[in-house]
């Protein structure tokens, strides 16, 4: 039998009240893989991330983490099972950088100084955060806040990381540095599903990408194939396939 996917969903429907926004969505990310989820605005990408992370119950379908059905498992428990999510540049604004990292490290045992070592390890990767360790997170720049979010995932070392709106509002030079950190996380063994407005950012990172339209997956291609097909990428991002 092939190894189970790091994360997968099958036949997922989701709705906001009477309005259905996902229709039978199937997505899978293998262990160690980086996969993009692309598409025009409002097609359901964030909703799918919410379903995978456990913030929203699907109306139909299943979510599997390393082969285990987690459809009914609450979001907080999914984090303990190795599924982390980063959305935008979220941080606890009134807490300092160090306090944020210690808080994110709730999945790490406090015994034998393990959490302190994990936080120190994250600071070693992000010296800029170390310099700002006693500053409230609300005073960080957007790029620094995104570093804080990535530092959190370095501490949690999840099996799977879902990333939504990674590059939103950040200068290209800042995004470039952060992408390197995402690659590093991936090399450490984290599989990623990356929702990206910028298809260029997504394709510079991922091995494979799904394209969504009107709540369904309409295409799936390797990044290598898409690199040869700029017209295809453009038409998929403009919509009109469903
Ligand atoms: N809380 C909500 N209540 C009602 N409708 C919602 C809610 N959140 C999202 N929607 C609607 O669901 C649809 C899918 O939204 P979703 O945010 O998943 O799309 P998206 O592809 O992530 O969009 P974007 O790229 O603009 O972030 C949209 O029509 C949106 O207006």
Walk me through what this model shows.
The structure is a single chain. The chain has ten helices and ten strands. Strand 4 (60-65) and strand 5 (68-69) form a beta hairpin. The protein has helices at residues 45-53, 75-80, 97-104, 114-125, 127-131, 142-156, 172-187, 199-205, 223-227, 230-238, and strands at 7-16, 19-29, 34-38, 60-65, 68-69, 83-87, 160-164, 191-195, 208-213, 216-222. Helix 3 (97-104) packs parallel to helix 6 (142-156) and helix 4 crosses helix 6. It has a domain at 7-90 and 158-238: P-loop containing nucleotide triphosphate hydrolases (Rossmann fold, 3-Layer(aba) Sandwich). It is an alpha/beta fold and 242 residues long. It is globular. The longest helix is centred in the C-terminal third of the chain and has 16 residues, at 172-187. The protein has a six-stranded mixed β-sheet, sandwiched between helices. A four-stranded antiparallel β-sheet has the order 2-1-4-5, with helices on one face. The structure holds adenosine-5'-triphosphate (ATP).
Key words describing this protein structure:
38% helix, 26% strand, Rossmann fold, ATP hydrolysis activity, six-stranded mixed beta sheet, ATP binding, 242 residues, alpha/beta, ABC_transporter-like_ATP-bd, four-stranded antiparallel beta sheet, nucleotide-binding, single chain
């Amino acid at each position: 039998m092939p190894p189970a996917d790091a994360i997968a969903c099958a036949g997922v429907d989701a709705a906001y009240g009477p309005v259905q926004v996902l229709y039978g969505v199937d997505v899978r990310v293998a262990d160690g893989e980086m996969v993009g989820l692309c598409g025009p605005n409002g097609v359901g990408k964030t909703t799918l991330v919410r379903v995978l992370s456990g913030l929203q119950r699907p109306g139909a379908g299943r979510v599997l983490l390393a082969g285990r059905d987690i459809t009914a498992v609450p979001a907080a428990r999914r984090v303990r099972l190795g599924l982390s999510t980063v959305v935008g540049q979220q941080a606890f604004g009134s807490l300092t950088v160090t306090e944020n990292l210690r808080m994110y490290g709730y999945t790490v045992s406090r015994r034998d100084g393990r959490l302190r070592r994990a936080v120190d390890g994250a600071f070693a990767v992000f010296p800029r955060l170390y310099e700002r360790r006693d500053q409230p997170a609300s005073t960080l720049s957007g790029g620094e806040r995104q570093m804080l979010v990535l530092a959190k995932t370095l501490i949690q070392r999840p099996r799977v990381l879902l990333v939504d709106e990674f590059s939103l509002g950040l200068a290209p030079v800042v995004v470039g540095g952060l992408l390197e950190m995402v690659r590093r996380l991936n090399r450490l063994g984290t599989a990623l599903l990356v929702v990206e407005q910028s298809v260029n950012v997504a394709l510079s990172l991922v091995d494979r990408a799904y394209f969504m339209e009107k709540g369904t997956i309409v295409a799936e291609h390797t990044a290598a194939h898409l690199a040869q097909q700029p017209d295809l990428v453009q038409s998929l991002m403009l919509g009109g396939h469903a």
